[in-house]
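I had to read the description of the data format several times before I understood it. The format is easy to grasp once an entry is in front of the reader. For illustration, here is how one protein appears when written out as sequence plus structure tokens:
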Amino acid sequence: MLTMIFLFLAQMSPVAYAETPAAKYPNMVVAKDYVKDLEVDLKYATADNFAKQILYTDLKECLVLRETAAMLKKANEKLKKIDHTLVFHAYDCLRPRSVQLQMWDVVKGTPSEPYVSDPNTSLASIHNYGCALDITISKKGSGPLDMGVPFDFFGDESHPRDEIQLMAKKKLTLKNIENRLLLRYVMTSAGFIPISNEWWHFNCATDEDVKTKFKIVQ
């Protein structure tokens, strides 16, 4: 039996074996192993993103730190208590710094620069550690809830800090804000930290804790 196993392993493609998430990103876990009904829609694995190009050539799954996955599981439990037909829908998870550099090249010196963290700083992006999620909520069978503007919309309408003024200007509806508040409620109840200019972005820890506790993925 052992001989047969060794022969099978020897015949396996070395490339296919090396490309497993655990092999290439050993500190990460697959988020769907923690949240079974998580919808994964990695925008940077397609050309449907602000850069208009495929940026992930090997990332096909939502990979995150174990700590991030455990927090998402807790947020999902809270979401299900509110409405069992709602599910999380992930747009981005772990993002290697090499991809962050490509993104920075696209936005550097443009009005979109504030929406992409500079990879040349000591922190770079919290996505580069597997500690951040770009995420929304979907209704089973109906797609993502209406948040007023889509993921990676680079403009004021994406800013949680400006939502009341935007509603007064009729750029966001009350329903848009209710949906965003639901997302923020379930995520922050699990310990995630939102940011002021992207309704979809949540960090698993503070900038300082990320730098001291976790390793960047190059």
The chain has a mean pLDDT of 92.
